[in-house]
Amino acid sequence: MPAEKPETRPYHHGDLRSALLAAAERTLRDKGTSASLSLRELARDIGVSHAAPGRHFKDKQALLNALALVGYDRMAETLEAADEPGLPLQDRLTTLARAYLRFAIDNAELLEVMYARKHEPDAAEQMTAAIDRTVGALERAVAAAQQRGEIVEGDPEHLTLVVGTALHGLASFAITGKFTTEAAMGSVAELVHHLMYGLTPR
Amino acid sequence: MPAEKPETRPYHHGDLRSALLAAAERTLRDKGTSASLSLRELARDIGVSHAAPGRHFKDKQALLNALALVGYDRMAETLEAADEPGLPLQDRLTTLARAYLRFAIDNAELLEVMYARKHEPDAAEQMTAAIDRTVGALERAVAAAQQRGEIVEGDPEHLTLVVGTALHGLASFAITGKFTTEAAMGSVAELVHHLMYGLTPR
DNA sequence: CCCTGAATGTAGACGCCGCCAACAATGCTG
DNA sequence: CAGCATTGTTGGCGGCGTCTACATTCAGGG
After folding, report:
1. Which of A116, A148, B8, B100 is most buried by a 10 A CB count?
2. What is the pTM of this model?
3. Distance in angstroms: CA A23, C1' C26
4. CATH for A68-197, among 3.40.1080.10, 3.20.20.140, 1.10.3720.10, 1.10.357.10?
């Protein structure tokens, strides 16, 4: 019988790439910001050498990019799961808005990585595609309502922009601490109402 | 005649704190992101020792906080200068929106620092005050229009939120590259129109 | 006018980091 | 099963933020 555990580590991890992304997300949640996230620490947590991450991500930014894509995927899934195509637009938007806001608040650190203004050179197209998928949920809702004559005519993309910007802005405010979670969630219904009916009297 | 310039450096810089902030902003503009901003490099640029910045900012985050406050100040000034209180709300908002968007695009890196979700412990109140001053420009416009009966009744703060979130969201999209500058600027008028009159037919 | 303490800048060190290159173990495929 | 690509390890380089001890300058009261 060997003096030490023989199979402590099989030399090859098996799926180090996924393990790194998972560890990064967990650490991100704990530390609270992406700046204090170190490849060496991730490697330590997982139990591989400090240079091992380099085999899967050419540099730290590459890992952050991959993490952002994971985030977009998860966000799109969340929105698609929350969507209720049967509802009239106002209720449907309110539902989507709540889901987005909830996700943003629960994953604030991940959003920071996703919205970081620095993965421009490459990976930009993957990023764009991921964003479009997210916005798609809103766009479908708006387009459907428009076809039912529920809302004004015009380029659906422009109308979606109104909702998208408001929503994104609200989430930003909530994340950066201008609101409490409750205040932000509580504002959603009224916000959507104003978007639907405008600021001028009828 | 002395062999070397006698007054190359007066030992005490005079206003190192301001010099650091200025250098930081310049470097930020060049490098493009706040992550690659080093106290040691700033010190080198200015010509002081690597530990000198520590006399004015207890750590790197403290410098970023101060930089954020500078940014908020400048932004508020920009908005206040652009505001035209005489205009009807729609035009007034469009003007303010354009000014905000222009500032955001021209100072994208600074905005990244301002909206960073990490200076929570202290400095939070200064930050909040700075943000309120910025939002104040919008709030005044909305309140004035409301008093003139131009727009619906209700808590002005809530109505301002509608405009504020949409604006902030649009700026975020523009900054992170979802739009070109022109596309974003071109969307402003229509966006404000939809905010004023809503999505539902009249 | 100098003396003394507070501000401000310097020099050096510590530990951490990202990244690179050389080497070792493993998996895969012909 | 031989050989090559993949994956992980070790060691090292330079840069970073921060701390401590020390040097210089400034400012104000005797």
Report:
1. B100
2. 0.92
3. 24
4. 1.10.357.10
The predicted structure's pLDDT at residue A5: 42
Nearest to B88 by CA among B131, B139, B150, B29: B150
Tokens 């909830």, located at residue? A102
Domain B62-197 in this protein, CATH class = mainly alpha
- In the block, which residue shows the tokens 């704190």? B17
Contacting residues of A for B201, CB less than 8 Å apart? 149, 151-152
In angstroms, the CA of A59 and the C1' of C19 are apart by 8
CA distance A118 to B176: 8
Residue spans of the domains in chain A: they are 8-57, 68-197
Residue (of B79, B115, B112) closest to B98 by Cα position: B79
φ and ψ at residue B135, rounded to 5 degrees: -65, -25
Average confidence (pLDDT) per 10 residues, chain A, 202 residues: 49 88 97 94 97 97 96 96 98 98 97 85 80 93 96 96 97 91 97 98 92
Q: Which nucleotides of D are covered by protein (CB under 7 A)?
A: 7-12, 15-21, 24-26
Of A33, A112, A198, the CB nearest to B195: A198
Closest in A108, A115, A200 to B197, CB measured: A200
Separation between Cα atoms, residue B64 and residue B119, nearest integer Å: 9
Using alpha carbons only, what angle is made at residue B54 by residues B48 and B57, rounded to the nearest 5 degrees?
115
Q: B178 with A131: CB under 8 angstroms?
A: yes
Q: Residues 6 or more apart from B16 whose CB is under 8 A from it?
A: B46, B48, B52, B53, B55, B56
B179 vs A: CB within 8 A? no
List pLDDT tens digits, range B90-106.
Answer: 999 999 999 999 999 99
Confirm whether any atom of chain D, the nucleic acid strand, is less than 7 Å from CB of B51.
Answer: yes
**Would you state the pLDDT for residue A127?**
87
